[in-house]
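FW: tagging you since you asked about this chain on Friday. Here's the raw sequence from the shared folder, copied in full. Didn't touch anything.
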Amino acid sequence: MDRKLVWTGRILSGVAVLFLLMDSVIKLLKLGPAMQGTMELGYPAGVVFPLGVVLLACVVLYVLHRTAVIGAVLLTGYLGGAIATHVRVGHPLVTHTLFPIYVAIFVWGGLYLRDQRVRALV
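HL: got it, structure written out here
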């Protein structure tokens, strides 16, 4: 059973990591959707690259076993900022505002299932 939990956790974490990596890469490359979306949310274009760097650093910490918990905590803060932004601009609740929570569920759910330390803590 433990082996199935770990693999389920790895899959959940993998889905979150793939999404967050894609998001960070489009920010680092300053691609059109990242630039446009960020400016529509009320942020200047100059913050896109730094946001990509911060997100990539958080994801790398999350992927590494020794720093996975701090990575999850930092990703939670990053995703919390996304929630606050969506609330501020008045985006729809289910599709936009709660989306970072869906990602956080994958982040923490995957970590819980794949990391015995987190299971023991809970």
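FW: The chain has one domain: 2-121.
HL: agreed, and Helices lie at 2-28, 32-40, 48-63, 68-89, 93-97, 99-114, 116-121.
FW: great, closing this out.
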